Amino acid sequence: MKIAFDSQILFERQKTGIGRNSEAIISNYIQLGTDDIVLNYFRMLEENKREEVIDHYLSNHKVNINKCKWFHSVLYNRLNRYLRLPYKMFFREEADVTQFFNYVLPPGVKGKTALYVYDMAYKVYPETIGEKTLRMLNENLAESCRRADRIITISEFSKQEIIKYLGIPSEKIAVVPCAVDHSIYNNIIDLDELTVIKKKFNIDQDYFLYLGTLEPRKNIEKLIDAYAALHKRDTLIPKLVIAGKNGWNYDNVYKKVSDYKINENVIFTGYIEAEEAVTLLKGALAFVFPSIYEGFGMPPLEAMACGVPIITSNVSSLPEVVQDAGYLIDPFSAEDLSEAMFEIISNTEHRKRLIERGLKRAKEFTWKGSAERLRSVYENMQ
Length: 382
Known about the structure:
Rossmann fold; seven-stranded parallel beta sheet
């Protein structure tokens, strides 16, 4: 088969979940070595960035780099919001399947198409979605799903949500779960590297860790409430490290920390590079992820693979992914979350059990396995 990947998402400087999933799927699909691969992308304003991202794929003789040289990516993205430019204007080579990764299927694609749809947050919690993104999804997603030959999503939970909110037939939706790179996310820790990073961010004791974008859906305000309650209960508690870039509507997170007067106990790192994030994760006392809605939830899975106990929500896809390998709490209850954090501190035996269960559960998810599942989807489309 000839498979084309719309690869513009590879060039995001600060990749979040969608970008990381896309990059891992593309890389591992190429490594299967079974199909001819085309990577479609537009000319960049910074061509050196293109070289860094793309060049390592060129050693594979089955990979063809298909660059639209006469149109900038920024210009395409802006015009496409209003004009819906036909994809075949820019990429005329036909593939057996062309895969798109970011909710929207452009018109005029040659051959069959597959579209990643990760969750229905814009329907369930529209108040947690930025205005521009919400408008884009409302205007385009349902119609994109109807035109696509196959919808790819990342959990059984998300599949049922797509059926419920968009009326897409079950047989049109395939589940290809996210996974873990076990060569990176494991319980082998470089203590010297951890010491350097802790010093960089002024972390001088044990710490709870949240890792992800600061945005309403991640429920970080409730995490601050829970941590403040824990601090009131006992001032000699681990610090709380919040690592990730500012998303949208994040000001209240910082305000709550100030209002509770726990500025010295809560550390904001801002966006950190992947290598630093992994090391911080491995060194954490526990990973706390009280998100109110996730299509999959990669961060808890990665924490489990690192041998770090997790506290996460009992809603959306998270119970499906975590099962019995973590504390599942009510994300709308600061008391529930605070109690789980206290249990991590005080109950060493249960913490060890969670670590063991987490390591075992995480082994079930590999990117090679996900790439193989995706290839089976493409085969069934022929």
